[in-house]
Amino acid sequence: MIVVTAPTGDIGHQVVQNLLQSSAQVRVIARDPSHLAEEVRDNVEIVKGSHGDAGVVNEAFRSADAVFWLAPADSKASSVTEAYVDFTRPAAAALKEQDVKRVVSITALGRGSPVADKAGFVTGSLAMDDLIASTGVALRGLAMPSFMDNIARQAVAIRNQGKFFLPIAGNLKLPSVATRDIAAVAARWLLDNSWTGQSEVPVLGPEDLSFNDMAEIISEVLGIPVSYQQIGFDTYKARLVQFGMSDAMAQGMTDMAWTKDRGLDLAVSRTPENSTPTTFRQWCEDTLKVAIDG
């Protein structure tokens, strides 16, 4: 039995689809099961509730061989620690109590960086993995750069202004990865019952691109001029607060961007093993263009 948390999210719903295609037994934890696709509801066990709740995770982890763990970045949390580490504490206890063998988690690049303790969401996710590792469970922390899919959140600005905005330097080449590839890597580890031990698994995408590079590709795919505009970190944080984030979580996002601008995601060398297939151009054609046209 494989347990999937956050099964309606960008990554989680694709993990579930991949596992079901492999005929795995799947149990999901869902706050609102009605948000699951009908074909998913018909083919998985469902535990209703939050995976931050002790009773829920103890029920869900019972007789489980493996768990896919993704802590939602609660935009209203009072601190990054609350959102990642405190949210995960009940699950860490349940992993030991229910004797779960393996966990595949979604975490971030940056471990060992001199700015890793100042990296906001990254700092929180690495501390979350440390908590999971402390239980003794076999762990593969899938260490991520930024997601290509985050650019789709600026679809309206791209369509209406021909621009997208972030506080990171426009000419800095960085890795990025499509969520479809993250889900594929996660499913492979979840379906493999042979591994033991604890380690991070970088998932880097196929190439390093700057945001200026991305703007050029977006322009070519959409057939309209699109440019990237770097904004100040204070402006970036203010926008996040305007969109409803707590001050602490907006600061956590801003701190993460600040460290990425200083090369946080560049410490891991690209290899065939940690590169994934979906290019940014392919992602734009398959996903961003649909979001813009919609």
What is this structure, in a nutshell?
The protein is an alpha/beta fold and 294 residues long.
Question: Features of this protein?
Answer:
294 residues; 11 helices; 42% helix; alpha/beta; Rossmann fold; 7-stranded parallel sheet; 3-stranded mixed sheet
Structure in words:
The protein is an alpha/beta fold. The chain has a domain at about 1-145 and about 175-205: Rossmann fold, CATH 3.40.50. About 40% of the residues lie in helices and about 15% in strands. The protein is built from 11 helices and 12 strands. It has helices at about 10-20, 40, 55-60, 80-95, 120-135, 155-160, 180-190, 210-220, 235-240, 245-260, 280-294, and strands spanning about 1-5, 25-30, 45-50, 65-70, 100-110, 140-145, 145, 165, 175, 200, 210, 225-230. It has a 7-stranded parallel β-sheet, with helices on both faces. Strands 7-9-11 form a 3-stranded mixed β-sheet. Strands 8-12 form a two-stranded parallel ribbon. Strand 4 (about 65-70), helix 4 and strand 5 form a beta-alpha-beta unit. Helix 4 packs parallel to helix 5 (about 120-135), helix 8 packs across helix 11 (about 280-294) and helix 9 (about 235-240) runs antiparallel to helix 10. The longest helix is centred in the first third of the chain and has 18 residues, at about 80-95. It is globular, with a radius of gyration of 19 Å.
